[in-house]
Amino acid sequence: MKIEMIVERTKTGYSAYADKYPAYTVGGSLDELKANMLDALNLYFEKDGKEVKEQDLKITLDLPQFFEFYKVINAKALSERIGMNQSLLAQYIKGNKKPSLIQTQRILKGVQQVGKELAAIQFIL
């Protein structure tokens, strides 16, 4: 079972709610937020005898939230890598424009490709 968790940045950290269940929480960090969401969901499902684990969570962010969470990702370099106009990507990130589904998938594919490449890197010791 995958439970979608919508995450938003707040002044004090993060907040999240489960898309299809009456569970919501806050946390000072993403790790704390996940742990709190697991607690909230497990309390909700306790009566049914179900247990929710971290792998059951699907974290959903919009583009501005993603780039807020992962400031280490350089938007200019990403735009060059995926062949997107830097100004357009910046407008998506600032929330001035909303990307289409195709543009969102294009950005996500680029980010995921970078993630795969980073995961495969080995350093010489």
In DSSP terms (H or I, runs of 4 or more residues), the helix count works out at: 5
Shape: globular
Question: What count of domains describes the coordinates?
Answer: 2
**Secondary-structure element order, as H and E?**
EEEHEHHHH
Residue-averaged pLDDT, rounded? 92
Separation of the first and last Cα atoms: 41 Å
| Secondary-structure-derived class | alpha+beta
Classify the beta-strand content into a percent band. 15-25%
Structure notes:
By secondary structure, the chain is α+β, with helices and mostly antiparallel strands. The protein folds into two domains: 3-60; 63-120, no CATH class. 48% of the residues lie in helices and 16% in strands. It has five helices and four strands, in the order E-E-E-H-E-H-H-H-H. A hairpin with a 5-residue loop joins strand 2 (14-18) and strand 3 (24-27). The longest helix is centred in the last third of the chain and has 20 residues, at 101-120. It is globular, with a radius of gyration of 17 Å.
Task: Produce the secondary structure layout.
Blueprint: E1 3-9, E2 14-18, E3 24-27, H1 30-45, E4 57-60, H2 63-69, H3 75-82, H4 86-94, H5 101-120
Parallel strand pairs: 1-4
Antiparallel strand pairs: 1-2, 2-3
Describe what is shown at a glance.
Helices cover 48% and strands 16% of the residues. It is an alpha+beta fold. The chain folds into 2 domains: 3-60; 63-120, no CATH class.
Supply database-style keywords:
alpha+beta; globular; 125 residues; four-stranded mixed β-sheet; 4 strands
